[in-house]
Amino acid sequence: MDKSNINLTKSIKAMLKRGKVAEIKELLLYLHPADIAELLVDIQNGSQKALFKLMDYEKAAEVLDELEPEIQIDLIDSLAEKEKAEILEKMSVDEIIDLLQELPESKVEKLLKKLPMDELEKVKGLLLLSRDSAGGIMTTDYVYIPEDTPVPEAINMVRKFGREAETIYYLYIVDRDHHLVGVLSLRELISARRDMIVKDIMHKKVVSVHVDDDQEDAARAIEKYSLLAIPVVDSDQRLMGIITVDDALDVLREETTEDIHKLAGITAEEDIILTGSPLKAAQKRLPWLLICLFGDLIAGSVIKGFESTLETVIALAFFIPVLMATGGNVGTQSLALAVRGLATGEITAGNFVSYIFQEAKAGLIVGIICGAILTIIALAWQGNPNLGLVVGAAMGVALTLAALIGMIIPMILNALKIDPAVASGPFITTVVDITTLMIYFSLATCFFNLV
Amino acid sequence: MDKSNINLTKSIKAMLKRGKVAEIKELLLYLHPADIAELLVDIQNGSQKALFKLMDYEKAAEVLDELEPEIQIDLIDSLAEKEKAEILEKMSVDEIIDLLQELPESKVEKLLKKLPMDELEKVKGLLLLSRDSAGGIMTTDYVYIPEDTPVPEAINMVRKFGREAETIYYLYIVDRDHHLVGVLSLRELISARRDMIVKDIMHKKVVSVHVDDDQEDAARAIEKYSLLAIPVVDSDQRLMGIITVDDALDVLREETTEDIHKLAGITAEEDIILTGSPLKAAQKRLPWLLICLFGDLIAGSVIKGFESTLETVIALAFFIPVLMATGGNVGTQSLALAVRGLATGEITAGNFVSYIFQEAKAGLIVGIICGAILTIIALAWQGNPNLGLVVGAAMGVALTLAALIGMIIPMILNALKIDPAVASGPFITTVVDITTLMIYFSLATCFFNLV
C-alpha cells in the first residue's frame, strides 16, 4: 500500500469525476506501464474502463502486458471490435497466449480472427502447448543468427531484427534446420574481430530447456546460471523460442505463492482464491480442512479412549490446548524449513540425513525447555506435582517427535516425486495432534495408576 | 535431489579416493561454476576442500561467487595465504562484500590486506553500508558514460570498460559531478545515429533506488519494471553502483524463505537455522513457541473456567481437538492469503475492504459445511443430539471468526508498517484457539443449562 500510489489513485479518481480528460491523458503519458497497471488494479470497475480508454493503443497494450489475465479480459471486453484488434496487434505474443489460455473456446475464436496473419500462425502453434510448461511461457520474438554469418552482418541483423525481439543481448546461433548449435552474447559479438564468422566465436555449450519441461524448471535454470534468457528447444534440439528473465521472475513469484498457499492447506492458484467467488474460494480450502477434520476426530477418540483417566483427573483437560498447539507449532516450523530447503536445493540427496539429525536435536532442546517450563507452570497452577511431571514429559517427547515428523514427511514426499509443499501445515499438525495426545494420555494413565 | 548430480557426486568422490586428479580437473573444466558449487555443497568436508584446490584461481573465484558465505569462509580458510590473495582478486566486488560481512573483525582486516589497492578502496567504502540495504548488495562494476560523449566514442567505452562490468546492457549517463542524469540501453546505443551525443538520445526518467533503501525494495523495483539492472544513488542523486537482476533473484529467494519461516513462527535467516548449531536453531524457534505456549495456557484456563460443564458432559472433551485444529487451519489459510496478497501487492489500500468481506463469506461457507458435518458425526458417535448441535454451532461460528482473524491481523500490522509475516501461523492459531474454546464452552454451558 504505497502512499504515493494512494494519492495518485485519489487524484486520478477526482479528475475522472470532474471529467478532466486532457489532464489525465497528460499524466498517463509520464507514467510507466507497470505503474498504470497498479493504478488500474486499485481503481474500481467503472472508472477502470474509463481510464483504460484514455490511453493510445501502444500504451494500452503495454499496460495489458502487466496485468493479470482476468483483468485483461475484463478490459478488452469493454472495447469496440476495432479497438480490440488494434491493441491485440501491439501486445507481445507470450502475453496474448496467457490471455487466450484463460478464455472460453468461443471467445478465443473471435479474438484469433482479429490477429494479423503472421501473428495468427505463431499464436495458434503456441496455444497447443501446456500452460505450465516452458513452451507455455516462451516467446517466439528472439534473435537467431545462421551459424555461418560473418560478424559485421550479424551485428546488422541484430540492429534490424532486434526491434521486435524480447531481448537482443543473447543471440542464438542455428544451423540450416534451425537446430540450436550455439549462443553468443551481444557483448561478445560487438567486441569480436570483424573478420570472424559467428560459428567460430559462439559458445557451443548452451543451457536450454525442453518445450515440455515445467515452467518452474526453466525459471530455476535462469536463476541458477544467472541468465538473462534461456532457449527452449524441441526433442530434436530445434530452437522453438526463448524465456526471458522477467518472465522467470513472474513464474517464481507465482510458484512461491502456490507453495505458501499449499503449506497453509489451500489447493489452488492465487487468482481463483483471492478474486473469485466466495463459494469457489471455500471449495479450494475444504479438501485439507475435511481431511484434517477427520484426522482430529481420531485425536478426539484418543481422548475418548482414555475417558476414565480424564474423569479421574479432569485437570488433564486444561493442558490439552497447550500440548496440541505447541506440538503443531514445532511441526509446522520443521515443515517450513524442510519445504523451503528442498525448494531452494539446500537439502540434497547427499546431506538430508544430517538435516534430520540436526532437526531431532533442535526438537529435543526445544522440547526440554518447553517441557521444563510447563512442569513448573502446571505445578504452580494446579499444585499437583504428578500432573506437572506428566505434562512436562509429554511436552518434551511430543516436541521432539513433532520436529521429526515435520522434517521427514516432506522429504519422503520429495523422494516419491510428490511436491513436498503438499504436506501442508494442517496435515502435519493433525499427525502431530494424534501423536501428542496419545503420548500425553498414555503417560498420564501409567503415572496415575502407578502412584 | 537431481539424479544426475547424485551420480556425478558419487563418481567424483570415487575419483578423489583413487587420486584421479587429472580426470577430475578435466571434468571440472566442462562444468558450469553453478554446478560445481552445487557439487561442493553435496560433498562432505574433507573432499570438499581437496576438490576446491583442483581448480584454477579464475574458476575457483567463479565457484565461490555461487556459494553461501559460510562455505566460502570455510574454503578460503583452507587455502595458503598466497592463494587467498589470488582468488580474492578475481572475485566480484559485491561477493567479497557479502563474504566480509559474515567474518569477525580480525579476519576482515587480514583479508583486506590481500586486496589490490584499487579494489581495497571500493571494498572499504561499501563495507560501511548496511547489509540489507540496496547499497549492501550493489556492485560498483558498471559502465557509466559522461553525458556529452558522442555515440561512436560511447560504443568504444563500452567495448573497453565493459570487460570488468557486471552488465553492459544498461549504460548510465552521468554529469561532471557523477550525478545520474539518464540511462541508455546498449540496444539503443548501437542503433543510434553516429552523429549524436548520448545526452540527446538518453532516457531522462530513470528508475533508481537510494543506497539506504531496503534490498527487497530494490529487487521488487527490478521485478516490477522488468529491468536487467537498477542504479543506486545517494541523496544528491550521485550514482553509487548498480544492482543486477541476478542479485535481485537472490534477494527475492532469500526474502521468500524469510517470509515462509516467519509464517511458521521462526525468527531468523535461513543459513543460521539450517546449518548452524542445534542450540542456535532452537533459540530462533523459541520466541514464538513460548509466546504461544502462554497463549494456549490461557486457552487451557478457558477450559478450567468451565470445569463444571466439562465434568457434567465429559464428552465435550472429545471434540476439543477437532474444533481447535480446524479453527487454527482456517486461520492459517486466511493468514497465508493475506500475507502473500500483501507481499505481491494484490491487496492494496484501495481494495482491502472487499478482501475482508470475501474472506468473511468464505469463512462462513466453510464454517457451515464443517459445522453440519460435525453435527452429524457427533450425533452418530455420541448419540447425543444436544452435543451434536453445540459442537456444530461452535464450529460454524469459530471458523467464520478464524477466517476474519487470519485476514485482518496481518492487514493491521501492514498498516502499522510492521511486516505482516510477523503475524505467524502459531500466533494466529493461538488467538483462534482461545476464541474457539470460549465459543464452544459458552455455547455448551448455555445449552446444557437450558435443556
TrEMBL record, chains A, B:
InterPro entries recorded: CBS_dom (IPR000644), CBS_dom_sf (IPR046342), Mg_transptr_MgtE_intracell_dom (IPR006668), MgtE_N_sf (IPR038076), MgtE_transporter (IPR006669), SLC41_membr_dom (IPR006667), SLC41_membr_dom_sf (IPR036739)
Localization annotation: Cell membrane; Membrane
Transmembrane segment boundaries: 286-306, 312-330, 362-381, 387-413, 425-450
Entry keywords, A to Z: CBS domain, Cell membrane, Magnesium, Membrane, Metal-binding, Transmembrane, Transmembrane helix, Transport
GO cellular component: plasma membrane
Annotated ranges, domain CBS: 138-201, 202-258
Family: Belongs to the SLC41A transporter family.
Cited PANTHER family: MAGNESIUM TRANSPORTER MGTE
NCBIfam families membership: mgtE
Subunit structure: Homodimer.
Protein name in UniProt: Magnesium transporter MgtE
Species of origin: Koleobacter methoxysyntrophicus
Classification of source organism: Bacteria, Bacillati, Bacillota, Clostridia, Koleobacterales
Chain's gene name: mgtE
